[in-house]
């Protein structure tokens, strides 16, 4: 008898490229669980910020990752931009990534499968995923989306701060030595610059369905 295999969908891409929205919709459509892996790195970063510790301190970041609890993942401060910045520092620590890897892989392997969104899902966490999607968009469009999400009444000065923070964070995520943000060879790339959530979902759903058969 053939063992059933989990359906695993990897959604990667830079900040505010639409990963969360797409991942939630794919999970609902295919009846899968969803893991926002960025929230794990955000939770580690937030722990350090709350204790007035430097997010670039590898030993303290590793200890915070080992100590992660379920309720750390629901803190409203996780969505703040300062937390995102701290997350990108802890995410560059190999020992932090090693601690979080086992949890993510175990999550993906439970039947019927899962959608994971992040930076290294298709390249490192689930290199054998059924379908890999890489979302991208111009940094200006992504910064405008994030400024709106942060409900800061998108004034020009706030948008330009979000834009410069995002350029810095994208560079840190793409240039780090361990599990940098990059397109997996077998990923379907979708540019969401001029595409709404429905258009992105339709393309992604068609791709996943084709990979499944
Ligand atoms: O929501 P947004 O795309 O801005 O960020 P996020 O997905 O919540 O990720 C926050 C930070 O965590 C990223 O900038 C990365 O530094 C890190 N991260 C990572 O390194 N690997 C992942 N699989 C997910 C997030």
Structural overview:
With about 210 residues, the protein is of the alpha/beta class. The longest helix has 20 residues, at about 155-175. The model has no long low-confidence stretch (mean pLDDT about 95). The radius of gyration is 17 Å and the shape is globular. The protein has one domain (about 5-210): Rossmann fold, CATH 3.40.50.300. The chain is built from 9 helices and 5 strands. Strands 2-3-1-4-5 form a 5-stranded parallel beta sheet, with helices on both faces. The structure holds cytidine-5'-diphosphate.
Key traits:
12% strand; 53% helix; Rossmann fold; binds cytidine-5'-diphosphate; five-stranded parallel sheet; 213 residues; single chain
Short description:
This protein has helices spanning 19-30, 38-50, 58-66, 81-90, 94-109, 121-125, 139-149, 156-175, 197-212, and strands at residues 7-12, 33-36, 113-118, 131-136, 188-191.
Q: Secondary-structure blueprint of this entry?
A:
Layout: E1 7-12, H1 19-30, E2 33-36, H2 38-50, H3 58-66, H4 81-90, H5 94-109, E3 113-118, H6 121-125, E4 131-136, H7 139-149, H8 156-175, E5 188-191, H9 197-212
Parallel strand pairs: 1-3, 1-4, 2-3, 4-5
Helix pairs in contact: 1-9, 2-3, 2-4, 3-5, 4-8, 7-8
Cytidine-5'-diphosphate binds near residues 15, 118 and 173.
